């Protein structure tokens, strides 16, 4: 990873566009695996298997929702965003695009969107660092807090040095490692518990002792219609994730978007399926091996299987897959956060004519600062990886998802509509998470995933305000140019 970081330092850090977006020269395979690896993170190898281990197949609705959402994101957002961000004064960050798309001289859109990115990404980054701390604790008996610093230190090293290109290339390598691990572990573990019959038998034994395990293989038992909808709604989040859609902006050409989609979706289907199977077969293995009394953290089931079923050399490779997943997401999030602090805060409000070398330096300092705050938030050992990821995912999906879709498809979408919708989406998610309101003893977020009300309210507010507010001719020529270019390549997006 450090060697890749140095290579990227030599090739792509001469100016802020290269440091933050790789000069828009990203290979489609690198873009696809980079988007996938930065998306999935430690939650796919720890959070998702842990959820399936505890609650059964019904938790796999998350994987279904995410797969659908990822495809729709590639299909409807990626090509238009790649074209429009370049036409909109070569926008290199999401806040940059919003400001240029609506010709917002007040910088309000840029400031609010940058603020949302910094707040939710700091929370999101802390989830990855929590996963790193748990990995080093479970694998090497290392102190949890020390594990946080080791994880963050390695990621900081190559991210600060090499910028976007380093992050994307390391994500590609890490994505390959994750793919191999999530094919190998389920296959070996499945054979280790006696195949399908043995797995069903051992899970049935666990169900006789644990409330709710009897219906472990049911897609509907133990959940409600609203619960299934909430899990599927994770897919809505894709439209507003800055660390994912920035890859679309960086891919080298419009034609390459379709290639990236084929690679990315194939990778995703295999890996999320493997993660779900790890949780299922993991429960059977723990029951078969009599480890119920000593195994206490379901989010470490992948680690347990890796250490007990494989030769130490292979086990080390599999543990590296978890670290790869964690590192790929943290590095992407740190870079997007630092780009917002640098391009959207420092350059816009403090030093508009700063030299390119100065902006790169500020970006590196911002990366370190964001990481420091994320480490502080991760000090709580009881933090749930899936819960932290879910909160941040909902925040981005509700605040940015509707705004991005309307910006790309509705010519009459206005600056006031975008600003109002963005604020409404973010505040709705925060209200749903922290409001002291309970219904039948349950918190709002326990009844329905906060992205659903956030996305709906953001869309309604954005459309409503746009219909009643005066529209100026924001980027009409560029919008028409985007539409024209999209029509020239229909076969690539069917």
TrEMBL record:
InterPro entries named among the record's database cross-references: Na/Glc_symporter_sf, Na/Pro_symporter, Na/solute_symporter, Na/solute_symporter_CS, Sodium:Solute_Symporter
Annotated CDD domains: SLC5sbd_PutP
Keywords: Amino-acid transport, Cell inner membrane, Cell membrane, Ion transport, Membrane, Sodium, Sodium transport, Symport, Transmembrane, Transmembrane helix, Transport
Record's bilayer topology term: Multi-pass membrane protein
Pfam families, alphabetized: SSF
Annotated TM spans: 50-72, 111-132, 144-169, 176-196, 216-241, 262-286, 359-379, 385-410, 417-435, 447-468
Entry similarity comment: Belongs to the sodium:solute symporter (SSF) (TC 2.A.21) family.
Function: Catalyzes the sodium-dependent uptake of extracellular L-proline.
Name this protein carries in UniProt: Sodium/proline symporter
Species of provenance: Hirschia litorea
């Amino acid at each position: 990873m450090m060697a890749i970081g140095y290579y990227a330092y030599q090739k792509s850090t001469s100016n802020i566009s290269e440091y933050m977006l790789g000069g828009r020269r990203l290979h489609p395979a690198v873009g696809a695996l980079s988007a996938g690896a930065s998306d999935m993170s430690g939650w796919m190898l720890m959070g998702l298997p842990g959820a399936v281990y505890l609650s059964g197949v019904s938790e796999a609705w998350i994987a279904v929702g995410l797969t659908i959402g990822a495809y729709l994101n590639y299909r409807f957002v990626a090509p238009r965003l790649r074209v429009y961000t370049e036409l909109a004064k070569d926008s290199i960050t999401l806040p940059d695009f919003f400001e240029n798309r609506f010709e917002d001289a007040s910088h309000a859109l840029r400031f609010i969107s940058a603020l949302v990115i910094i707040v939710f990404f700091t929370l999101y980054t802390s989830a990855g660092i929590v996963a790193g701390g748990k990995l080093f604790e479970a694998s090497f008996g290392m102190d949890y807090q020390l594990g946080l610093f080791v994880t963050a230190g390695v990621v900081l090293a190559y991210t600060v040095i090499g910028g976007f290109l380093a992050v994307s290339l390391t994500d590609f390598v890490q994505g390959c490692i994750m793919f191999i691990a999530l094919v190998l572990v389920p296959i070996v573990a499945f054979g280790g518990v006696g195949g399908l019959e043995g797995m069903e038998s051992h899970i049935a034994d666990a169900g006789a002792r644990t409330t709710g395990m009897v219906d472990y293989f049911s897609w509907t038992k133990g959940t409600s219609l609203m619960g299934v909808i909430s899990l599927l709604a994770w897919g809505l989040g894709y439209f507003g994730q800055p660390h994912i859609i920035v890859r679309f902006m960086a891919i080298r050409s419009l034609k390459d978007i379709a290639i990236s989609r084929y690679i990315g979706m194939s990778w995703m289907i295999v890996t999320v399926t493997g993660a779900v199977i790890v949780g299922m077969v993991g429960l059977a293995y723990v029951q078969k091996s009599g480890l119920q009394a000593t195994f206490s953290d379901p989010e470490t089931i992948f680690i347990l299987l890796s250490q007990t079923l494989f030769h130490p050399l292979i086990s080390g490779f599999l543990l590296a897959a978890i670290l790869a997943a964690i590192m790929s997401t943290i590095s992407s999030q740190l870079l997007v956060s630092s780009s917002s602090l640098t391009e959207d805060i420092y350059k816009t409000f403090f030093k508009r004519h700063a030299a390119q070398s100065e902006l790169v330096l500020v970006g590196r300092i911002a990366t370190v600062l964001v990481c420091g705050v994320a480490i502080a938030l991760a000090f709580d050992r009881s933090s749930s990886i899936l819960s932290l990821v879910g909160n941040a995912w909902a925040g981005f999906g509700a605040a940015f998802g509707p705004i991005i879709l309307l910006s790309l498809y509705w010519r009459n979408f206005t600056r006031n509509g975008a600003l109002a919708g963005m604020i409404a989406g973010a505040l709705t998610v925060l209200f749903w998470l922290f409001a002291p309101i309970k219904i039948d003893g349950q918190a709002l977020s326990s009844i329905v995933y906060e992205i659903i009300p956030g996305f709906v309210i953001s869309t309604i507010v954005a459309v409503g305000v746009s219909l009643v507010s005066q529209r100026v001719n924001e980027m009409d020529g560029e919008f028409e140019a985007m539409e024209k270019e999209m029509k020239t390549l229909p076969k690539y997006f069917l």
